[in-house]
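I had to read the description of the data format several times before I understood it. The format is easy to grasp once an entry is in front of the reader. For illustration, here is how one protein appears when written out as sequence plus structure tokens:
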Amino acid sequence: MTSTPLRTEREPRSMKRSLLTPEGVDLRLTLASAGDRAAAFLIDCLIMLASLIALSIAVGVGFGAMGKDGGELLKMIWLVGFFVLRNGYFILFELTPRAATPGKRLLGLRVIARDGGRLTGEAIVTRNAMREIEVFLPMIALFASSAAGETVDAVMGLLAVAWTGIFLLFPLFNRDRLRVGDFVAGTWVVKAPRRKLGVDLAGDAGTRLQRFNFTPAQTQAYGVKELQVLEDVLRRRDARTMKDVARRIRRKIDWLAEPHENDADFLAAYYAALRGRLEHRLLFGHRRKDKFDAA
């Protein structure tokens, strides 16, 4: 598995994208439609609204208990809670392994890096920080002026609505359905429906593993990222891809193949050995991200 730049290919007028990894695996992706993204955002907004109502009730109860003396403190708590909610909600959920908020999970969506690499915390913070500029700040300013009883200038109100509308409709005007935050952060939102895993690959490879005797050095050649790619190869069962990946792994670990050695059996056995080693090391707090990480 040599290290070469990842390459993406796009089909015209299609939501499908082809992501070719250095291992030669064609990861077929389907981008989320603008409707799916809007529906997910609406679900998340409803969850946030329910949380904000609960926070408001808690602050109201606290005001009743503390009286006017604690009013300013409770107001500050509410404002800070509202800020943390509308920013931290998206960031914290997308920092999880599923890289998706509850709204995205319900619709089978997730966030990935457009270059095929690891989705970093910096990218997640960036894409969600942009939402504050895209949507929340102009709408908050408009509602705050109205709530204070101030007369909102018609032009200012129109500008706030237009500003938010332009950003909300932005995904409709680019073929990848990207928000401005996605452009800046280098991310995609793709469909990732749950799949039935069927037979556990490591368990299925157990009997095959007995026919192969990998040394510790050979199982130390790769990390979690390569394990995930190998799992995808085994599930797809594409003969050409398995042959190519098996050839690369054999060369990487200096494995001398026996005559008529089956590529699928070799890959399944190596998958079981690699997964077993990584899980064992994880018990002792060692997590090797990929082949470039220290063993």
